[in-house]
Structures are given as C-alpha cells and as structure tokens.
Queue: 4 jobs
Job 1
Amino acid sequence: MHTKSILIFTLLAGMLTACNLPGPATVIPTETPIPPTPIQLFPTPSLLPTEIIIPPTAIPLPPEQAVLARAGEVVQALKNKDMLSLAGYVHPVDGLRFSPYAYVKSTDLVFPSSQIPGSMSDNTLFTWGIYDGSGLSIDMTFTEYYAQFIYDVDFANAPQVAVNERIGKGNSIDNSLEFYPGAMIVEYHFPGFEAQYQGMDWRSLRLVFMDYNNTWYLVGIIHDQWTI
C-alpha cells in the first residue's frame, strides 16, 4: 500500500510538470533601479535674448522724399477740404502762414493749428494782404480765400512738382527760402491752361515745411501766379 501511494504521487508530479503548472514560488532578482532622467529647465521666453527687427518702413527717408510724401498728404487734404487732417500737419509752434503771392511778408496771416479745423465754417472777414496791380486789400473769409488763393486749380494733379526749386516765374520776387531758412518747399505747378494766354495763366502752390523734433511740419502755403 505504501509503495502504491508513492507511485501515485510520482505520477501526479510528472503530470504537473508536463502541464507547466507553477511550482513553488521562486524569487527573481531585480535589476538595479535606473534613476529618472532629470528634467532640463529652460528660461521662460521673456528671459531669452530677443532680436529687434526694424521693418523697412522705419528706415529714415532722405529729407526730400520725406517732405514729398508729407506734401502729397497735405495737398490731398486741401483738395478734399479736410481741414481737420490739415491741422495735424501744421507746425505746433509757428502755426501756418498764408501768402497770396510769391513774396512772403511778415504781415501775412498766420493761423495756429487749433484754428484750422473750423476755418471753412468761419464767416470772419480777414485781410490777407493786397491785390497785385490794384493795391486793394484782400478782404475775404477763409472759404473765399481758399477758392482764390489756395486751391483755385487741382494742384493734387499738377503735371510738375519740384522741391526747393521755383518753377513758376513771374514778376513777383520769390523770397521763400530767405524767409524760411532751412525749410523744404514743395511746388505744384501748372504751366498754363489756354493756348491763347501763351503760358501767362500758369499757377503754382508752394507748401513750406520746417523740421521740428525730427518731423517736417507745414509752416506756409504760398500761392503764385502771373502778376503785373
């Protein structure tokens, strides 16, 4: 009987081995733990060195180009009767002087920039100077003066434009560069309109700019035409 029990036990052990049933628990040695890779910290974007890129439009223009660009905006504001926009170009200290003819006088009217926006609706009669030939005083509202001595023709589409060079030449002395030392003057010129006048019906508008705190401001508007 004892021999039979041993035989049965041996058979059962063999069957368990053949079936890959787990035997007694076995302790498997573990590998040495690998420490976690430390996290590499980077400075925040605000602390990184930055590169300042200046756009091409910020490159300073030569004075002539800068003034021509300003003059183009001014003459467009005059064409549109946009006095509010015009006021933004007026010299903040010297104001804007209006000269009906080429010869600039110290007695020519000067408007501060604050007076420009409401000028078209101002019914005040101003004395702007005297008429060439007759010697009578030029007594007009701003609107009337604008129509005869500022934008009497479409200067925004003038065929000739010059900087610091007089195009229209008549009997009046042009003292603008002497009166405004260091100024840049842009002239818009029509050589004439009707052939019968042989060019004597020419018109010019000169816009005078002075540099103030690195900005070219409008200090004078000069109207010029053939005079007696």
Job 2
Amino acid sequence: MKKIPIVFCFDDNLEMPAGVCITSLLVNANVDTFYDIFILHSDKCTFLDGKINELPERYRNCRITYRSVGREFENAFEIRAITYTAYYRLLIPNIIPEYDKIIYSDVDVIFRSDLSQLYETTDLTDFYMAGVVSISAGVDTAYSKYLEGLGINPLDYIYSGNLIINSKRLREDGIIPEFIEKASRTKYRFQDMDIINIVCKGRIKRLPPVFCLSVAINKYASFRLENPCYTQKELEEALQHGIIHYNGAKPWKQYCPHFDIWWEYYRKSICYDQQYYFDFFVQKMHEYDLMPLWERVKILARWFMGLRKIFKS
C-alpha cells in the first residue's frame, strides 16, 4: 500500500466544495493508494462534526485528521475574498511534523487521477517546494512587472493552490518563521502565493501543468495558444487528465470552464443534495434562457469544442 499524505485548509464557507474535492481524490485513487488526509482549521470552525467525517466510512483508502491552527493569521492581509486560511499552508511543516514530504491542495479543485506516481517520483532533495508555473506571468505585462518588482522572474512564479512541500528541508533551514514574518508585516497582492515565491526563490521545482489545470492554463490548452512556460503536449495532457483548479469563477456559483465536471463529482459526493442540485440547475437554465443569442452561441461553441477534443482523444 502506498501512503500519500495530503493537506487541505479551509473554513466553514468551503465545507461543501471541500467534500466534493476530497471525494474526487478518493474516487480516482488506485487500489493500492491510501491517502492520509489532514485538514487545517481555525478555532472558529464548526465543520469538524460535519459530513466530511463520513468519507472514511465510504472509502476505506483514507484517514482524516484535523489539526487546529488556533487563531494564527487572523489579522493577516485579505484580498479578493480570499480569507486568512490561505496562509495556513505556510505552517504545514510544523503542524504536521510526521511527514518530510507532503502534498497541499486548495479545495476548489477536482482530482481526475491518482497522485502516487507524481508524489513518489518528485525528488525535492535540493528544493523547498514543487509547483506549476503561472502561465499568465510570462505574457501579462502588468502581472510581470508586479512580479519583477518583488524580485521574481515571472517564468519561475508558481501557483500555490497545488504544491508538493519538502517539509523536512523547510524545518531544517528555519524557513517557517520567514513565512510568518512576511505574512504578518506585508500586504502582498497574491498573499501566500507571493510569500512562497519570494522566500523559496531559487529552491522551487517546476511541475508539469497536469498537476494544476488553472483557468489560464485551460485557456491556452483549449485554444492551442503558444506560451513560453509549457509545450502543447504538456498543455493537452493537462486538459485531458489534469487536476482542475477553479481559481477564478466557482462552479457551485456560476458558469465557468469545466463547470460540468465539478457537478458530476458533486453528484457522487457525500454533500449531494437532490433539492439543491435541482434548484441550482433550474436557476441556471433560466439564466441561460435570458441570455442574448450571441452569449448562448458562445457557450454552445465552447461545449462543442470540448466534445471534439474528447472524441479526438
């Protein structure tokens, strides 16, 4: 049995998406994969007795452990409706000391494959972190200038929503206090993501985009756009099999790329509620009916493009 440790950090507002996310992780696990799941939370959270506890009863290939972060980062900078729980990932090496290497994931994510091979083959001997480079950084001028102002090469800047963390090295080199200091003193535009890229600069390993199919990566893959970060083969693999990260619009709130895939896993999840599911889609169909013809045509065009890719594969 291959034991893979993985961490999630969220608050009560994301309990339902977290249930869907973790369900997708377990549904796609290999028969010999066991996920040791850790959930970091604040003292204020009430979801500890919620539906997520039903997962180990339904799926025998996991264990769930809750770890309190207390009230750490409660006064840290927040922006774009991203709460202070985003900073919890910075404390993982200290809060979960039993593992030297561990995966972190946001919960606005759908897993479509097993993680054991990527986890086992990612050598972090000389690195603090491994992640997927933000595909927008090398092409968005304003974004690039902001990163350069932080002393970061835009082509090295990784997303923080999906990480493999070298906890042992971070502890040994005393990096966690640096994370905490920056989180408490500076208002970074991209919060924990900026902090990770600044502090770990030069010690970050690049992973293929299959580990994080972000909104931007999805756009470049879907329309076969050239990008300096990844090859078309890497982008196509991410589109077909990648971990979908809904780091823009959320599918449980509105239309977005791969909206249908998220709802497919919602139906399979411990959080499934037939009335909620029905009411949501009735509302969305009503919204669709009220859209101008051109908007509906664009939605259908994107849908047909997706079907074409599926049949071609």
Job 3
Amino acid sequence: MTQFIYGSYAHAPDSVAFTGLTRTYVDAPNGKHKFLRLQMNCKGKLIGRGSNPRADIFGQLNTLQAAYAGGGGENARMIDDNGGTMFFLDNGFAIGGVVVTNPISHEEISGAESVTYLRYTFGLQADFFFATGTEVLNFQETVSFSDNWGRPLCVERVPAVGEPIIQQVTEASFFHATQSGSMTTVGPNPTPMDPLWPDNLRGQDGSVSVTYDSPVMIRGVPVEYSVKWAYQFVSTTPLVGLPNIMG
C-alpha cells in the first residue's frame, strides 16, 4: 500500500500513482549545472461512496482542488504501508518552494466516469540549487585596442586656397586599450576582474566603471548575481594582453 500526501491533504491509500518522475539539470550558459529540477506527474482516482456516489465524488473533488489551489508551497511525499517515505519534495529546501505545475485536472466525463469514480491528474515541481557559493555561471571579457600604434599623428586640413593636405602634428602617440566584461555567480555581489594594466588606468573620471545588476529571482528567491566592469587605459608604450578566461 502507498499513500500520497501533499501538505495536510492525504489522498486515499493506493489512489495516486506516478505517470512520470523526472530529475533534470538546468544548466548555466557555460554548461555548468545550475539547478536540479524534480518533477512529479501523477494520476489519481476518486471513488464515490454512499447513497449518492456522484455527489460524494464532487464533494471529494472540491476538497482536492482546494488543497492544490494555492499553487504550491507544501511538502509532497509518497509513503509506504509502514509510513516510510519513498519519494519526497521538500518545500523548505526547494527554490521558492514546491510548485503546482498542473492543478487538479480531469478529462471528459461520460459513462461511469463521475458516477462511481473520477480520474484526475496533477503535477508538482521543485528546483534545488546544484551550483553553490561563488561558482561562476557565466563569464565574458573583451580587450580592445584603439590607437595609432604609437605612430605620428596626422590631421586633415583644408586650406582656404589650394588642395586639402594631411599634416603631421606629433612625432608619436599614446597607446589606448579598453577591458570590459561581465560575470554571473550564484553567490551575491561577485568581485569584478582586476585591471590588466593597473598602472596605466587613464587617470580621469570614467577610467573605472563597475556595475552591479539586481539579482535574477525565482519565486522571490535570488538565484543569480552579476557584475559588469569596464577599464580605460593609456600608455606611452605598447599595451600587450589578452582577456581573462573563466568558466
């Protein structure tokens, strides 16, 4: 004998069976497992009793629908005839609690259906953290160079009289670079990457930019935090470097 219990509602013994019990991973953009998702798809049967079994069935159905009407937030378990737990969705550990993905539903009512019995289905889901702490879920960084490679600078001039000319105005020029990127972690407020050339930050307002985004939420629970950074560099000698790699 088995019995399915959702919150304080106990289905009749041996009245509920699984049509599917799946465990899947929800992956981050870098391919790492982010969540473990458990899904229970179930089918059940209400049996009418007494002198008016149809009325009894629909009375049971109203109580059953009310038990699942909140959309989730309850423990769900299948117990055996010794009271031992065979399967369990823990609302306290699930991200945002256990969710009702398919409320109590039933198909066409005909014949003996709804007169002596009524078959129904429902589905539950729970997500659990797989990645933890400061584990990186997504990372990208770009390093770009925008300068004249230190060569002389020239300007375009159009004289009042005569043909346009290209005029050299310096013997050398600065080297410029930009380092920008973003990172997403499970834990709050990830630390941005360090500047590749800290001694060559431009030294003006705007040379360092760090942005924190509001976390991604699932049912009121923060599950992803992200940070963006951008650094501007200038140097009298070539800046040599490549973006960081992580993930």
Job 4
Amino acid sequence: MTAGAAGIGRAVAERFLAKGARVAICDKDPDAVAAFAASHPEAIAEIVDIIDETGMQAFLAKVEYAFGGIDIVHANAGIGGPAGLIEDLDAKDWQETLNVNLMGSFLTCRWAARVMRAQGSGLIVLMSSTAGLFGYPYRSPYATAKWGIIGLMKTLAMELGPHGVRVNAICPGAVEGARMDRVVANEAAARGVSTEEVRANYVSTTSLKTWVTADDIADQIEHLAGPMGQKISGQALAVDGHTEAIM
C-alpha cells in the first residue's frame, strides 16, 4: 500500500492487519512511518517517495521477496495540488499534481500487474475521487489526474481480467482529516470565501448531507477483497454520500 502510514491508508492497513493479513506500506512522511511501525511492528513499513522510481522498485522488491506473492495492492498515494483558475496556476504545481497522482499509480500497478498476472489472481484498488467523475472548478490539475486514474483502472481491468486479476477505483467524497483541512483552506483562499462556507458546500452538494470517514473507505475495500466482491472489476465506486454536483 502506498501512502499507508496515515489517513485513509492507515485505516485500510489497520483493517487488514486486524483480519490477520500480512501488510506492507510505504509513505514519504518519516514521522508517520515511524509511528505506524511502532504500532505495528509485524508490518513492513518503509519511507519511500511514490515518484522515486528507484525507491519504489526497492520497496516493491522487498515486499515480493517477503511475501512471495500479493493478494491486494492499494495505490493510495496522491496530493490535492493547487487551487485556482487555470490561468493563475503554476506549471510546476500542475506537473507535480499529475506526477504524484498518476506516476505513483503507474509505478505501483506496473509491478502489481506483473506479479498478479503470473500468479493468476489479485485485486488492485486505485484511489480516484468524485473529482474523477465530475468537473471541478478551481481544481483542474486534481480533476485531470483523478480522471486519469479512472482511465488507468478501466484499461488495467481489461488487460488483467483474463488472468483472474480485478482492478477497481474508489472515488471518495470529502474525507474528514488533516488532508481535507488543507484542501478546504486552499479552496477558500482561491475563491475568496471562508473555510466555513467551503465546508458547508461540500455537505450541501451530497444527497446524504455528510462527510466521509477513512473507515468508510476501508469498508468498501474490505468488501471488494471479500467473497462478495469477487465479480466486481472495472468499476469506479463512489463512497461519497452521493455527490450531486461539485461547485
């Protein structure tokens, strides 16, 4: 699992650890990795930047050697990127958003595809967003990256399906936590409104009028991995309280 030391990644990792699974996570935050490792010494936990190809290859090789095969891969790493009208965005910020969200998923999936194709089974879960299902004003680099994840997922489901490998994408809505706090602050600044107004807007545009938790995401991935999810592949699964629009 990438970006597995905090937030959604940690919630998913801990869900599978609790079920007795062997788990390996990487994350670029040294403090988060240290905290995760201290709490879960039985897991593999490495400090790796998702866009560092050499670092990722070393981490994935370690996992393959330790586990022999792999049942589930969760490509979770991503960043929100800058907020603003497209004419005001910096090209470096745009490129970084695509690199982290797309290149990181590519490096993870390239390895997972090789291993799972050979063993004839496996589940790959990519992390998209409701921003991969709608247009998203003031967040064009993020929306572009998350739509790209959907295209990657659909393609890999077709490539790997004949070999018994399933590929799906989770599309969370607004997930409670520190990462979303930063997103809200950036959006508020870009739009010239208060953070309270942005938060209220996230709730008002969903049918259930609620935010999502990291455990809600873990629930969906656990379902995909379980016996009732064995025929689900090629799907963009929204866990968002039903987003009606992104404003």
